[in-house]
UniProtKB/TrEMBL annotation:
Superkingdom per UniProt: Eukaryota
Name this polypeptide is given: Short chain dehydrogenase/reductase family 16C member 5
Transmembrane regions: 20-50
Keyword Transport: no
Family designation: Belongs to the short-chain dehydrogenases/reductases (SDR) family.
InterPro entries: NAD(P)-bd_dom_sf, SDR_fam
Pfam family, one: adh_short
GO MF term set: oxidoreductase activity, acting on the CH-OH group of donors, NAD or NADP as acceptor
Keyword Coiled coil (UniProt): no
The entry's keywords: Membrane, NAD, Oxidoreductase, Transmembrane, Transmembrane helix
Listed PANTHER family: EPIDERMAL RETINOL DEHYDROGENASE 2 (PTHR24322:SF749), PKSB (PTHR24322)
GO CC entries: lipid droplet
Amino acid sequence: MLILPVNYLIFKLENRFNRVMLIIRSILSTIEFLILFCFYCLEAFILMFFSHRKNIAGKIVLVTGSANGIGREISINLARLGSILILWDIDEEGNSETAELAKANGALAVYTYKCDLRKREEIYTVAEQVKSEVGDVEILINNAGVLKGKGFLDLPDSDMDETLDVNTKAHFWTCKAFLPAMIARNEGHLVSTASISALAGTNKLTDACASKAAAFGFLESLAFEMRAAGKKGIKTTIICPSYVNTELVRGVQTSRPLLLPILDVVYVGKKIVDGILKEKLYVLLPPYVGLIVLKIFFPKKVVFLLIEYLGIFNNLDDFRGEVRRGQPQRTK
Ligand SMILES: NC(=O)c1ccc[n+]([C@@H]2O[C@H](COP(=O)([O-])OP(=O)(O)OC[C@H]3O[C@@H](n4cnc5c(N)ncnc54)[C@H](O)[C@@H]3O)[C@@H](O)[C@H]2O)c1
């Protein structure tokens, strides 16, 4: 008869002990977190002055959207470091020009491929071609992008599809094609040219902002997935530039050039490659534009005031959406 109350007492004591242990463990892990947090912040601060850049000479690097603008500048900067370049674009003429520039700037070898990034099967086919003709890609730079610059209800469904296919879904398919070999070696680097529009909505950029936010979320999640799987050798870098003076944004204006500048493409190309060499997780250009995320803590009227002050309602008033070589005719 006595056994029952004794069992109950033991059960109660065990429960209390487990709860106390849980609290102690939680306090200890929080202290550990705070110590490491301070240590890593200090380490990052010191490394700002003595930062190490990785050597990419002889590395196989794939750049999408390499025929023009930022992609061309990235390619030229990578060429200067002696990498083997694989250039993907729908614009064959522009891609050949980039290839010539890359060779003249010291690339170890340059391979150009026509690939329409709206088409998943084409991406997989060209990826297989790359693997057999060049080898496993060691750094994958998803840079190609389109910009329609139309109000939401003026955007044909086909434009929305294209924006999401090129700016976001192509990143899924290229990563699916090249990531397994990186995982096998526990070495590789995935880069995405997202945009500041991943962090803040913009008038007449519903499709672009949605596509960039998705590209940002995709690569950030993949970075955490690789860490969780113990694949510390797989690096990721998300690039978020403000406006850059390329054909993509021809006609775009800024009323606050200090806060929301239109950056020079040569400067942007250099900063992106520098961020890749330093294996940064995020590259914000200019760095302070990242402060825009603080908007979520502001009252509603302050958010609209800030967006209006930054000129985000009118940036695209004179946007011209140029028709580009190799691209389908844009509908205005
Ligand atoms: N220019 C800016 O202000 C700015 C700002 C932030 C982010 N970005 C991003 O930077 C990246 C590069 O932009 P950019 O300014 O150099 O533009 P760009 O138009 O000069 O270059 C984009 C390249 O992508 C290629 N491309 C487009 N559709 C394609 C398809 N279906 N298949 C294959 N290639 C295709 C084009 O041919 C072109 O060579 C884009 O992802 C863009 O969204 C640009």
